[in-house]
Amino acid sequence: MAKKLAGTSSNVHFHDIPDVILSNIFSLVTDTRTRNAVSLVCLKWHLLERSTRKSLTLRGNIRDLFLLPTCFRAVTNLDLSFLSPWGHPLLDSSPNPVLLAQLLRNAFPSVVSLTVYVRNPSTLHLLAALWPNLRDVKLIRWHQRLPTPIGSDFIALFEHCHTLSSLDVSHFYCWTEDLPPAFEAYPYIGACLSRLNILKNSSADGFKSHELLAITAFCPNLREFLATCTFDHRFIGFVGDQTLLALASNCPSLSLLHLVDATSSSKVRADPNDEGYTSEDASISHATLADVFAGLPLLEELVLDVCHNVRDAWPALEVLNSRCPRLKSLKLGQFHGICRSIDYRPDGVALCQGLESLSIKNSADLTDTALVAISLGCPRLSKFEVLGCNRITVIGMWKLAYALQKTLVDVKIFYCKNFDAVSSLQALEPIRDRIERLHIDFVWENVEQSEGQTGSSNQPGGFENFEAGKRGIIREERSVRKKCKSYALGNDNLFSSRTWNKLHYLSLWVAAGELLTPLSLAGLDDCPALEEIDIKIEGDCRDQPRPSMDAFGLSSLACYPRLSRMNLDCSGVIGYALTAPSGRADLSLWERFFLSGIENLHLNELNYWPAQDMDVNQRSLFLPAAGLLAQCGTLRKLFIHGTANEHFMMFLLRIPTLRDVQLREDYYPAPENDTSTEMRVDSCCRFEDALNSGQVPD
């Protein structure tokens, strides 16, 4: 503290810096633990840190009012959705809910942004009146809607918060019929809204066309609109040409438009040999798309995931480029013919020169030549995703990465027929030193390169029509040919000695029953900056025999020295929660298989989604999982997205560094009533008391 500052000729105490400058410095620090450490230096720094804290996520049990902090009076963004017991009515646990709400108001008087779990309407009836200046509200509910009148969930919020400008109900289960009457009753709320997120992540229901039109008519000043709807013309209320045109007319100032079909998140992985076309076409014409784009000149981000064929879309996408010059991010689902790439010349989506993020999903005729055209026509791309595109190959992806090696840092290759783990990494070799975020399918099998595939760029001389600066890609083609040939001959260690210097986030999809052990053999053994890994496991284990190996292979991740955060999502694994038939394994054995070896990792934070039994709607932590998690000696945060027995949770108290644990039933429908064997309110309180009574080393 007494050291002289750089560039000074005399000793200057750090406290000599004016408080205004110190406050500005502290306000730039966003990491919570870093801010907490700063506040422990001295009393002055403590007061400055507290006075500059703008965001706070409140944890702990709502019953412990004496622990409610009163020093964060400058906080403007408050998250109450993680208070314990999670998912229970926020204020009902108190004998005097009005007093509890008032205490929250007194502790955080400056709140203008609120996130809260609303199990029943009474929560908002109490909180909205105390924070009338709320501008940004996110509601969360995974439990089923109570049998209350239509729109009652929003009445209190709209009645008291007249300055509301942003509403997010993407994780709030309600009926699609609830919102239009609420906006009709309070039209001034709709007029004030600039952002509305009505994506239905909590259910498979989508908004009907007349509901979307009613909502957008009440909210003409929206700048961001996200919604789940139905594009299938066989259903009443589907979204077609007229709906899209009316939507653009109702909200001409949109900078973000996100429309996704209700079946998008629930669709299973299709047959890789399928051509990629759905049985039905969407009722969306090229002329309509062109008119919609012309009516939204301020558009910066567009997502259209329609789940039904939109064929020969390239003319409409060329209009998108000319009419929406600010467009930076684009995601298209089930759009075909987005780029013809005749003689490798950019057209269609490849003419959107300002794009920084592009995601292409289930485009049946996307080829290597189209990838090359996109890479040359969109030179600013920093994020690129391809999902379910079966005609692209390693060659095309390699060329795209090579052309964008100065900008591309975020890549996702998901469920593309010609890509497994090794070939995906081979394709990204040109940006190996730059890439920061990566998702690949961890499929371990040889993929034959299709030399004669239509649209493939395997033939030499494909770039002869381009300027000399672009022709350098040709000279690299022979090199990638040799690498692909070596791979086809079984040279699995082709890139094993290469370093991924800046890769700090890795996402993997793994089929249930497969092993993670060959990860280093694929070429990812040297990732010195890798801090976070996200593993998604999917598959039906009911028809599979018992695991042939003892462990899934998590211990192989110990080669990453900075790995500290993991999301292990087994929610897509389906099995038997109770007794399995003869010769089959129940979910407890599969959990042992998936989690074995996790004790060898030095993780600080773990999010774990247990496997599920869909027949009984059960996602529970079993004894093997509890025992294995209890051996993770460095865990500080553990969030289990399911249920558990109380005595299994008590195993976790053996972790010496554990500070934050919570059960979150954040899936629909969340269990309504806790059974006698699962964590109840009293069980949570006993576990939290035992956890808080221990001494944390730091």
UniProtKB/TrEMBL annotation:
GO terms for biological process: SCF-dependent proteasomal ubiquitin-dependent protein catabolic process. InterPro entries: COI1_F-box, F-box-like_dom_sf, Leu-rich_rpt_Cys-con_subtyp, LRR_dom_sf. Residues 17-54 form the COI1 F-box domain. Gene3D superfamilies: 1.20.1280.50, Ribonuclease Inhibitor. GO terms for cellular component: nucleus; SCF ubiquitin ligase complex. It comes from the Eukaryota. SMART domains: LRR_CC. Transmembrane segments: none annotated. CDD domains: F-box_AtTIR1-like (cd22159). PANTHER family: COI1 F-BOX DOMAIN-CONTAINING PROTEIN, PARTNER OF PAIRED, ISOFORM B-RELATED. This is RNI superfamily protein. The lineage of its organism: Eukaryota, Viridiplantae, Streptophyta, Embryophyta, Tracheophyta.
